[in-house]
Fold this protein.
Amino acid sequence: MIEGQNFYKQWMNFWGFGNKTFGLFKNSGNTRVKIHTIHGPENSSAYSTDGPIKTLVDAYFQQNPQEKTSDHYLVITASNKKYDQGEKEDHPIPYYGIGRWCYAVDYPGLKYENLGTPGPVGDKATIYIGGLYHELGHGINLPHNGPSASQINNPQFGMTLMGSGNYTYGKSPTFLSFYDAATLNNCQVFSTAVKSFYGPVTNTIKTIQAKVENGEIVVSGTYASTVAADHITFRNILESDPDGYQSITFTTVTGPNNSFNVRMPISDFNVKANMAYTLQLFFHHQNGTSTTVNYAYQFVNGQPAVDFSDRNFLIRADWAVAGVSSEQGGYPAVHVLDNNYNTYWHTSWSNPLPHPHFITVKTGANSVTASGLSIATRHDNSGSAGKIKDFKVEVSSNGSTWTEVYHGKMALNGIQYFTFDTPQTFQYVKLISLNDHEGKTFATLAELNLY
C-alpha cells in the first residue's frame, strides 16, 4: 500500500497536481499501515460476492463510527491458498471495484519484492499487486481508460493502470493518465481540505460544435453547471469495448465562461477501422462528483465521421406521449420528453413482450415540419439490454395513417441524429424498435427530439 501511495503520487506530480496521493494511517517509521480486521461468522464460501462482505463492513463502522474517515473502502480478503505455487480457490473471491468500494486478495507469498521475478511468482505479483492498484483506482472514482497510440509506444508511459495495468505493473511501463489524475485531484481521500464531497451536480451542454480539421477531431462548445469543473476529459469509447479499457482520453482545463475546446489527433487513436465510437464529455467537478454527456460518431475507412454539432430542435412545450407498446413502473414513456438525459423509458420487464416496441409522440395541437429526428440513449456505457439497435420512424397527420420516413441503426451510446430524405410535415411521430444490441426483448430511450 505504501508503494501504491508512491506510484499514485509520482503520476499526480507528473501531471501537475503536486505530491498528492491517497491518505493512509501509518506508523511513524512509514513501514506499517493501519488495517481494520473483520472476521466473518460464516465459512469462506459465504463471502464469494461483495454483498455479504459489505454488510459486515457496514456493521463494523456502525459500531465503531470514530474509525470511519472517508466514503471510500478497500477490502482485502485473506486467502490461505498459495497462488504463486499453483494452488486455487474452491470458491470465488470478490476482486473488483464497485461504487466507492474496491475488493482485492492477499495470499501467502505475495510480496512487492516479487514484482519482475521470472515465472509464476512474478506473474502473480503483477496480477495481484497491479490488480489491487487497478481496483483501488475504481474505489477512488477512476473509470477504465487506455493509452493513446503515442503513449503505448513511449517507454515513459506504456500501459495505463486503468486499462490493462494489472497485467503490466512491475513488468513493463505502467502509468496513470492525465484523465485519472484530474479525477483524483478532486477525490475525497486525496484532499486535505475540510469540505463536502460528492454532492449533486446539474450540468448541461449549452452548445457544441464538432469537425475534422488538419488531421484532428476538434470539439468546442459551452456548458452550464451548478458546481464548477476544473477539467473536462474527452473520452473516446469503442462500441466493441463499452467498458472503456481501450478508451482514448484527452483532458483539458475548462475555458473562460464555461467553454471548452479540444483538438484530438487522429494519429493518437489505436483503432481507426470501420468502428462506432462514443465521445463522452467527462466533467471533473470541484466537489469530486463527475457528470458525463455522450455523443455517437464513427470511423469510416480510417477517418472519423463526426456528426454531432448542434441542431435546432423544435420546441416541445406541448408535446405528449400518444402511445407506447409497454412501459415499466418508474420508467414511463414521458421520460423521453423531460429534457433529462439521466431518466429514460424502459419497456416492461415485469411482463416482457418481444420486439417490435414503439413509442408515439403527438406534437401538440398543430402539425410541425421537421428534417430529422434525434435520440439520446439510456445514459450509461454498457451493452445493457434495451439499447435499441435497428429501428424505423413513421409519421402521421391523424395518428392512424402512417408513412415510413426513416429506417436505420442506432449506435450503442450517445446523442444521435437521423436526417430524413426530405423534410416532413406531421402531427404524430412513431419510433419503432425492431431489436436491441443484446438480442433480448427490451427497448429503452432517454430523449426524443425533432429538428
Notes: Residues 236 and 279 are 5 Å apart (CA to CA).
